[in-house]
Specification:
- The chain is of the alpha/beta class and 343 residues long.
- Helices cover 45% and strands 10% of the residues.
- The chain is built from nine helices and nine strands.
- It has helices at 5-8, 52-55, 100-106, 129-136, 144-167, 173-180, 195-215, 247-284, 291-332, and strands spanning 28-31, 36-38, 44-48, 65-70, 82-85, 111-113, 124-126, 184-188, 218-220.
- Strand 1 and strand 2 form a beta hairpin.
- It is elongated.
């Protein structure tokens, strides 16, 4: 049973954090203020998020990896070696019925935070934001994932610097890249394709992936992840292929449906007007109008019902277009989204 279940509210159907996990790294804190943590010689760092599409691939059972969690992900993961909660309001806006501050206090693993909050407990660690901004020459941190990536890159840099200092070596660019090739960063459970995550977080994460790749650091990113995806090569292809329809085909289909609906609306209003007019005639004659008046009203009423039924059918077709466009939009952003998920 999860060790966090008593006070953190293990997620339904999930195995929450276990302090005694057999593959845990048991990282130690070297300097809380400077943000220095010993990863026990492990050269693979997994950054894990909430997206179920790829979170399942996180190497929880592999002792070569450091597992990095964030926020309340411990409700879903049985193992976390280093945790991140970079929010000044970390004790607020948490899952109802959970005690996040208590977990931070009692988890026993390094937890990187924006500052050393006295109430956060003995294993909280201050994220070295000022040093990292100065080192990389850019203040570009739009999400916790980006913050974790920069931390991982910096950690690997410092490990290699230590190796070089110990050997007094002056490596060639190829030799330096080979040293970086010994390290891997994995990204699991992270898509960043919805709302502000796509608008201003995804680009930042992909920027830092580029920084790490330029050094020669390996990356493990599941094929289903939305990161580093293009649906077509600009200039070489006319439009993206999402595996459903071409966007131009969908737009044509939607336009045809709208045109048909517009005609049916006109027809519906005309029939309503005709029926209302004959009904007024019948009323003015105290209900003694000729038989053909009732026949015509019945005929137009039948036509009206048929028109309304057709309108409902084309409304459904338009809703289908909207659903397909939603899926196509998410796929264009890199997401692996099944069409059936929206029906």
């Amino acid at each position: 049973m999860s060790s966090n279940i008593d006070f953190a509210g293990q997620a339904p159907g999930a195995e929450g954090y276990r302090a005694d996990h057999p593959q845990a790294a048991h990282c130690t804190i070297l300097d809380r203020q400077a943000g220095e943590v010993d990863l026990k010689g492990r050269k693979k760092i997994a950054i894990v998020g909430f997206a179920s599409s790829t979170r399942k691939y996180a190497p929880i059972g592999d002792p070569d990896w450091i597992i990095c969690g964030l926020n309340q992900l411990y409700r879903h993961l049985p193992r976390i070696d280093v945790h991140f909660d970079i929010h000044s309001y970390w004790e607020q806006d948490n899952v109802a019925g959970t005690d996040h501050p208590k977990w931070i206090n009692e988890c026993g693993i390094p937890v990187y935070m924006a500052d050393l909050y006295p109430e956060a407990g003995p294993t909280s660690v201050r994220y070295p934001i000022e040093r990292l901004i100065q080192k990389f020459g850019i203040d570009y941190f739009t999400s916790t994932v980006a913050i974790e990536l920069v931390w991982a890159i910096d950690y690997i840099d410092r490990q290699i610097d230590a190796q070089l200092a110990a050997g007094f070596a002056q490596p060639s660019p190829a030799e330096l890249r080979a040293l970086y090739n010994d390290y891997t960063i994995g990204i699991y459970g992270i898509d960043l394709i919805v709302g502000t995550e796509y608008e201003w977080q995804k680009a930042c994460v992909e920027f830092w992936i580029g920084v790490a790749t330029a050094r020669g650091i390996n990356f493990s990113i599941p094929r289903e992840s939305a990161l580093l995806k293009q649906q077509y090569r600009y200039g070489y292809e006319r439009e993206p292929n999402t595996g459903i329809l071409k966007m131009s085909e969908l737009s044509t289909r939607a336009k045809e449906i709208e045109d048909i609906k517009a005609k049916l609306f006109v027809q519906m209003h005309q029939l309503n007007g005709r029926i209302a007019s004959l009904t007024d005639v019948k009323t003015s004659m105290n209900g003694t109008a000729p038989a053909f008046v009732d026949e015509k009203i019945a005929e137009w009423q039948g036509a009206l019902e048929k028109t309304v039924a057709e309108l409902q059918t084309y409304d459904g077709a338009m809703q289908e277009c909207v659903h397909i466009r939603t899926v196509m939009d998410l796929r264009l952003k890199g997401g692996s989204v099944p069409l059936a998920q929206f029906f």
